[in-house]
Amino acid sequence: MAAHAPGAGSGSGCSGAGRDTPSAPGAAMADGPVADVLLRRLEAADGGLDSAELAAELGVEHQAVVGAVKSLQALGEIIEAELRSTKRWELTAEGEEIAREGSHEARVFRSVPPEGLAQSELMRLPSGKVGFSKAMSNKWIRVDKSAADGPRVFRVVDSMEDDVQRRLQLVRGGQAEKLAEKERSELRKRKLLTEVTLKTYWVSKGSAFSTSVSKQEAELSPEMISSGSWRDRPFKPYNFSARGVLPDSGHLHPLLKVRTQFRQIFLEMGFTEMPTDNFIESSFWNFDALFQPQQHPARDQHDTFFLQDPAEALQLPMDYVHRVKRTHSQGGYGSQGYKYTWKLDEARKNLLRTHTTAASARALYRLARKKPFTPIKYFSIDRVFRNETLDATHLAEFHQIEGVVADHGLTLGHLMGVLREFFTKLGITQLRFKPAYNPYTEPSMEVFSYHQGLKKWVEVGNSGLFRPEMLLPMGLPENVSVIAWGLSLERQREPPVPRP
Amino acid sequence: MPTVSVKRDLLFKALGRTYTDEEFDELCFEFGLELDEITSEKEIISKEQGDKKAEGASDVVLYKIDVPANRYDLLCLEGLVRGLQVFKERIKAPLYKRVMPNGEIQKLIITEETAKIRPYAVAAVLRNIKFTKDRYDSFIELQEKLHQNICRKRALVAIGAHDLDSLSGPFTFTAKRPSDIKFKPLSKTKEYTACELMNIYKTDNHLKHYLHIIENKPLYPVIYDSNGVVLSMPPIINGNHSKITLNTRNVFIECTGTDFTKAKIVLDIIVTMFSEYCENQFTVEAAEVVFPNGKSYTFPELAYRKEMVRADLINKKVGIRETPENLAKLLTRMCLKSEVIGDGNQIEIEIPPTRADIIHACDIVEDAAIAYGYNNIQMTLPKTYTIANQFPLNKLTELLRHDMAAAGFTEALTFALCSQEDIADKLGVDISATKAVHISNPKTAEFQVARTTLLPGLLKTIAANRKMPLPLKLFEISDIVVKDSSRDVGARNYRHLCAVYYNKNPGFEIIHGLLDRIMQLLDVPPGEKKGGYVIKASEGWKLFYHNGYQQS
């Protein structure tokens, strides 16, 4: 059992930095020279002693005495230390300089000879600028602007009293209290004085006071165990308030951890994963197969990444393409169609898929070709692309989560039931559904959940029954309904960890 | 989704009652609308241009309502009110009627020159209309909303509305050389040729977006009256002569375009919405359009279509058990006048000219479900029995990711798109050697190609994390894309694994050890034997590349 106690400064908060075992500061100090002296002084002292005074007497940094106090405290009741804070006025670096060499205005005054000095020359002196205006307002000097070779500065008085220097010297001598409040605050405004708070300890004997302190062990070693010496050794207590050292490990990406959770949920619900490993899609599968008309705004250059190379799809299932073409341009399967001139060239255009529903369309087409029809539950989670400029609220690529169920006689009520189970697994139980419009689902519904933090309903997904104009040209049986829903992985939080 | 902005008080007056914001929000939700924002002109200006500019602007409360993209009949106050009032059974859906004029019918003759640029036109007349400031604003706003949505920014259809009394028919829709077209356009004080106008409008924030539709064409479309007065030069601008005002009583509406179906829909929407303010409410005066082939048609179509849907189909698709009578009642509340006919299970539904979105029985099913209330539908679980399978490539990926993290490497998630430089120049490779897929319309250089290697993403991740304590040990398992003519789209993904070790000393043995560990997990033995793996030296960046491992 290692009994080391990393101090607050050991940097244990940085992941990846915790390779070296942090040393145990403080352990070595308990029997250091300062601590020894402190104990001896304390033995002789009447009542107690002040840590700052001791530091001054010993000529060491105050921090060294504080360290000794803390290490002794850690040993138990050897000493008692009471934290005291006192305020003190100290000179700033500039204040020190003035205390030594006089105020800027005094230095200006002294540099003006009885016959006067050109103002331009005076301004070049180190104290010139600050000192000049102060000396002017003190009426120690004057400027004669009518002098022949430019303005000239003359003394007004023969001598003066440098109060600023005198006051600063008082402060330096530890007699700041002799200054009036107003005088101190003026010097502080001029940044010559600062008030510092000094934290010192008033140290007195503890109930177990002793000048001979035995060193506490920081770690239990194999030698101690084999020799049995551990029985007699005092051990340093753990410091539970310090941070531990993070384990040296790799990490999974947080968003992909959420992806894993969603995969798990789908798998638990019996959904089979669709292949989605094709970022490049033809407009046909991305739009036309989904009954999304060729003039739809989503097919605009502004919204979708089209390809320059390879610009067009090489093969399309032409039989199926013709059925899609007819449905768009003339209708059929009970539909009026969109009644426009459908163009094959438009369908051939390659793009970066704008949704994984393109992959779902391919999967449903494959399903439709398998006879007889077998019910399926499919899911996918993968990247999709939109022609956006990156900023805090827009991504050009993100992950879409999609679920699809195809079976005879599925209803809107079934869709809602599946969504309820799905979202319950995510820890979202308050759901409601809003009518919406999607080109390829009808009926369509947006899924809202009540956000406890925002205190309002927020949209969490989109869903619906795929349109017959999408399913029937694929060759799916007429009484088969396909329910589907989609959401964005980037908008999800990690599902809560279940507590048994 | 289009957003319609209406004055709250005007809306409530038209609805005949007031709502709290919450109540109205609830009503919208139920009907499939979304009360997106409650604001005022003043608030909008102050948000966009600062408080100073907003001084003096109106602080009348505005509701911004999101309308589904296919519901053109809800794009103005008139339509919203009608839809909601019928939904709440406070009024019956109006019957829109096309009537012949007492005198001569207005004629629009299309000449064959339009064929190559804008071949279709439709027209109608709103007779004895009464505008007020609010009605007029709504009329203009509806045209703008239609232009932005169904008209695809005027490319498919452009609308022109004119004061009929200032004109004299018949009208001619033709196409002419831009230099031969000269007229005084809306809100200008003098005449310009079409060439001059196109130049002037290049700096017009609103109109500059439409210029490209005709800009490089030899002939521009233009509509004249019988005296040679220019009504409009679609899809850019109307003439000032026939401008409608608050005092206009008779409005001639023309819609020209490249999509005949959409032109007819747009005309139907405008006249059904604003015939409300005609002396004979909801009646529209017909106009005749003569096509270049001599055939003539009468518009607006205002066609009512009958659809037959079985009640049990609706019940089966929604998952409810309502009587046919109730279903007919629900549909009627959605402006789809319905009645039960035949064997008592058939519902006959009348699709009005305002509901161009109804193209299939499934659209009718949705409306029944909306009127029933989505949130009143009983949730049930489908009995679909299936056995789940993982996609094998993703299953392997999931397993490997965890082992990579256990081996002390941290997972990165980087973009699949990048610049040409990232995959070529920066790695010392010629772009033509990458077989990369190129994007034709990226908005920024960061999205010129799909990555052909995961390495640039990991290097960028390291560059962005230089301040982190060393070593950095990163990996990614994700897809890259290359051209492949054996695939239907001419490109395919490959799943790659890439790992990078970054430290003060190179530590090749670390990345080598990782590779050995991966091979051990995949049960691939080291050595030259068949089925084994070896590492070979390679040129340039590939040296690093082979430190990673390419699966597949």
| Total number of helices of chain B | 16
The proportion of residues in beta strands of chain B is 15-25%
Mean pLDDT of chain A: 85
State the helicity of chain B in percent bands.
25-40%
Overview of this protein structure:
The complex is a heterodimer of chains A (500) and B (552). Chain A is an alpha+beta fold and 500 residues long. Chain A contains 17 helices and 16 strands. Chain A has helices at 33-44, 51-58, 62-73, 93-101, 104-111, 119-123, 128-137, 163-172, 181-189, 222-227, 254-268, 283-286, 318-329, 344-348, 357-369, 412-425, 468-471, and strands spanning 48-50, 79-91, 117-118, 141-144, 152-155, 193-205, 272-273, 280-282, 307-309, 350-352, 376-385, 397-408, 431-435, 441-451, 456-466, 480-488. In chain A, the strands form four sheets. Chain A has a seven-stranded mixed sheet. A three-stranded antiparallel sheet of chain A has the order 1-6-2. In chain A, a hairpin with a 4-residue loop joins strand 14 and strand 15. In chain A, helix 2 crosses helix 3 and helix 5 crosses helix 7. The longest helix of chain A has 15 residues, at 254-268. Chain A is elongated. Chain A starts with 32 loop residues before the first helix and ends in a 12-residue tail after the last strand. With 552 residues, chain B is an alpha+beta fold. Chain B folds into three domains: 3-88, Phenylalanyl-tRNA Synthetase, Chain B, domain 1; 97-299, 3-Layer(bba) Sandwich (Phenylalanyl-tRNA Synthetase, Chain B, domain 3), CATH 3.50.40; 392-522, Bira Bifunctional Protein, Domain 2 (BirA Bifunctional Protein, domain 2, 2-Layer Sandwich), CATH 3.30.930. In chain B, 28% of the residues lie in helices and 23% in strands. In chain B, helix 9 (311-318) packs across helix 11 (361-372). Chain B is globular, with a radius of gyration of 32 Å. Mean pLDDT of chain B is 91; it is low at 542-552. Classes of the chains: A alpha+beta (500), B alpha+beta (552). Chains A and B meet through helix 11, strand 7, strand 8, strand 9 and strand 11 of A and helix 8, helix 9, helix 11, helix 12 and strand 20 of B. Chain A: Its cofactor is Mg(2+). Chain A: Residues 257-491 form the Aminoacyl-transfer RNA synthetases class-II family profile domain. Chain A: Belongs to the class-II aminoacyl-tRNA synthetase family. Phe-tRNA synthetase alpha subunit type 2 subfamily.
